[in-house]
TrEMBL record:
Boundaries of every Phage shock protein PspC N-terminal domain copy: 30-86
Membrane-topology annotation of the record: Single-pass membrane protein
The keyword Cell division belongs to this UniProt entry's keyword annotation: no
Location relative to the cell: Cell membrane
Protein name: PspC domain-containing protein
Keywords: Cell membrane, Membrane, Transmembrane, Transmembrane helix
Classification via InterPro entries: Phageshock_PspC_N (IPR007168), PspC (IPR052027)
Record-annotated membrane-spanning stretches: 60-84
Length: 116
């Protein structure tokens, strides 16, 4: 018997290895770069895993697009890296930077006690 899990959107049962719910089509796992087969930053491997494609096919598509777009695709790649978390439960590099900058502005002033 196959192991089953419940969809978070429609509460129907599905197999644990399913990437999408067969009933409502909701993805069971968010897009993240912590997948097997990553080479440089993991963006192509993450897209391949998310779309259910072969990572080599996505990498070839990226290279063809890079040549045809005269480098504009590199900007898209870097943006995907910046806004995609490195693990399913982690934060994206851009989100970590925004959180860090926010913590600087909200830092309480250190209080110095003066004793007389």
């Amino acid at each position: 018997m196959d192991a089953m899990k419940r969809c978070t959107a429609c509460a129907e049962e599905m197999r644990t290895e399913a990437l999408k719910c067969p009933h409502c089509g909701t993805r069971t796992e968010p897009l993240h770069r912590g997948v097997e087969g990553r080479t440089l930053f993991g963006v192509c491997a993450a897209l391949a895993h998310y779309l259910g494609l072969d990572p080599a096919l996505v990498r070839v598509g990226f290279l063809v697009s890079l040549v045809l777009s005269f480098g504009t695709t590199m900007l898209v790649y870097l943006l995907l890296w910046a806004f995609t978390p490195s693990s399913a439960l982690g934060k994206a590099p851009m989100q970590r930077t925004v959180d860090w900058l926010g913590s600087i502005g909200n830092a309480e002033e250190s209080r110095v006690e003066t004793r007389v």
